[in-house]
UniProtKB/TrEMBL annotation:
This is Type IV pilin protein. It comes from Snodgrassella alvi.
Amino acid sequence: MLQLLVTLAVIIILTVIAYPYYRQHQLQARLNQAKAALLINGQFLAVHYQKHLSYKQNKHNWPELPISKNQHFCFRIQGNPSFAREEHFTLKAVAIDTEAEPRIIKLNQDGRIFICQSSTSRCDEENHFFDGKGQPDKKCRIF
């Protein structure tokens, strides 16, 4: 009986030690999936620009992205197309559950990828783009 209790205690201790590392690995894997989707969407926009000399579909709309969401993130272009320049874009990946993952990833037309520690952007916003008013993203650095 004592051996069973010792074995159980060791298993519990190992689980308590390993779980945070597992959770961190899981979040990093999700960020990498989001990064891959951003790159695919970025390639789509690059081809669109070559054909139309604009990242916009028209003055008031962005083109529909090939990947608009996955299991953990939604993907949209940041900013109202009516006020955006023809030769610029910022794609953004925002977690569907911002409590579990508050960080966001951004990709711009130059291929630079940034990770921000927090954002006011949410997947349930009504627009087909993320509002870029003010400074919605905080503590950003190159990813």
